[in-house]
Amino acid sequence: MLSLIMGLALLQVSSSASAKFNRLEAFGDNPGALTASYLPARATNRPLVVLLHGCSQNGEQFSRQSGFFKQATMHDFNLLLPQQNSDNHENLCFNWYSEGDYKKGKGEHLSLINMILATQKTTKSNGTYIAGLSAGGAMANILLLSSPDIFAGGAIIAGIPFPCARDLSSALNCMKQGMSSYQAIPQRLAKQGQPLPKISIWTGMQDKIVSPINTLQIAKQWRDYHQTEQEIKTKAESWNKTTWLDPSQVAQVELIEIEQMTHGIAVNSTIKGGGTPAPYLLEAPISAATDIIDFWQIRN
Predict the structure, then answer these.
(1) Would you call 32 helix, strand, or coil by DSSP?
(2) Could you give the CA distance from residue 140 to residue 146 in angstroms, rounded to a whole number?
(3) What secondary structure letter does DSSP report for 194?
(4) What pLDDT sits at residue 54?
(5) Which residues make Cβ contacts (< 8 Å) with residue 236, sequence separation at least 6?
(6) E strand or H helix at 202, and its extent?
(7) What's the gap between Cα 228 and its chain centre?
(8) CA nearest 59: which of 113, 96, 107, 112?
(9) 138-143: which pairs have CB atoms within 8 A and are 24 or more residues apart?
(10) Contact criterion met (CB below 8 Å) for 52 and 140
(11) Domains detected in the chain
């Protein structure tokens, strides 16, 4: 029995170490001039997770440092990593504030949707989820709002509510002050009878780059969109979680506020698959990757 357990453990380590990204080729129109790679699951009909990096980041490296790569190998889901390039933005930010890129059917928006649809077909995935940090979080939020029928879940980390900006100047203002006035998500965006994606929202309460007010506005938009009826608060020593339940008592929206964290994604290097610290990957008492995968309920 002991030899069998050791053998299975070695197999898991080996499969994780040998997992490699494939370049996504020929995924259709690409007006945003983005590239992408993906990590296929070992089995068919496994979920697909799309991970959008933040400014100055490399998608593959971000997936490893954040813990999402390890989560994918542990729980056998597909992982798609779109990549911004310096010709589009010198700091490698997704252009969430550019009308030519955030509008449905245009620019980076269309490129990302085509990447997702192509990867769904290639991997035969069952359920698609999207997470993003900062500019990637803002773009993830836009995709979730514009195409809620594509996604079963989303995670918006240090992101921006939509609509908020129409150019760089207004984007900088949004980052500091959020929306000037609250705007609800139009209910017409969701197809009748189509379940809305479950949303996990994260902020560092000491974030000086993207004010936490943005995260509070995102949470209000999504909890109103889901028409949630019950709120549950969980308080830990240095972070707080608020969860909103739908009329069926199912958790649909969660907000995690980490008291001493600045701008970035929470990692916890003491947890298996919890990520490792790096710029904008911040050691915290809770790991975004592990908590988000739990919230989406896509563990194998």
Answers:
(1) coil
(2) 10
(3) P
(4) 95
(5) 285, 286
(6) strand 198-204
(7) 21
(8) 112
(9) 138/94, 138/96, 138/97, 138/162, 139/52, 139/94, 139/95, 139/96, 139/102, 139/108, 139/109, 139/112, 140/50, 140/52, 141/218, 142/96, 142/102, 142/109, 143/109, 143/112, 143/113
(10) yes
(11) 20-179+187-296 (3.40.50.1820)
The backbone torsions φ and ψ at residue 80, rounded to the nearest 5 degrees and listed phi first, read: -105, 130
At 39, which helix (H) or strand (E)?
Answer: strand 35-39
The tokens for 137 are: 């979080």
pLDDT in tens, 102-119: 999 999 999 999 999 999
How many Å is the maximal CA-CA distance in the chain? 64
Lay out the sheet containing 22-23: strands in order across.
22-23, 35-39, 78-83, 48-52, 128-133, 153-157, 198-204, 251-258, 239-245, 230-235
For tokens 């007010």, name the residue: 213
**Count of Cβ atoms closer than 10 Å to residue 104 Cβ:** 12
Q: Which residue carries 């980041």 as its tokens?
A: 57
Residue 195 pLDDT:
83
Q: Residue 184: pLDDT above 60?
A: yes
